[in-house]
Amino acid sequence: MRGKRGRPRRRPDVVLGDRGYDHDKYRRLVWGLGVKPLIARRGTEHGSGLGTQRWVVERAFAHLHWFRRLRIRWEIRDDIHEAFLTLGCALICWRRLKSFR
Questions:
Q1: Which of 4, 19, 26, 55 is the most exposed place for a label (fewest CB within 10 A)?
Q2: Backbone angles phi, psi at 16, to 5 degrees
Q3: Which domain holds residue 81?
Q4: DSSP letter string, 55-95
């Protein structure tokens, strides 16, 4: 078998962050975990390229907030909340695929 030796890596190689996390404390914390931080600097112009990748995540959260049960977590049990989250993701995918016809 080819590949790297040892246990499979579970941490990401890079973490993306917006200007709200631009502080040396957070950068040191992420570097200490062995992950490279890509955090936009405060006071610099927009256009660093991070927004194109973060937009996918932000759009997914916005789609999930269409569902009132997921906007505020009312369920105490994790399994029930996870079931509603899975149902919400399935409905989003179904609506998206239905619009491609």
A1: 4
A2: -100, 140
A3: 65-101
A4: HHHHHHHHHHTTSHHHHTT--SSHHHHHHHHHHHHHHHHHH
For 2-45, how does the pLDDT look when each residue is reduced to its tens digit (9 = 90+)?
667 777 767 788 888 878 888 889 899 999 988 998 888 887 77
DSSP conformational letter for 29: H
Separation of alpha carbons 7 and 5, rounded Å:
7
Half-sphere exposure of residue 9: CA atoms within 13 angstroms, side-chain side: 10
Residue keyed to tokens 């390229």: 49
Q: Which residue has the tokens 């030796």?
A: 5
Contacts of 35 (CB under 8 A, 6+ apart): 11, 12, 13, 14, 15
Residue with tokens 């404390």, as numbered in its chain: 25
If residue 19 lies in a helix (H) or strand (E), which one and from where to where? none
Asked, for residue 59, whether it belongs to a domain, the answer is no
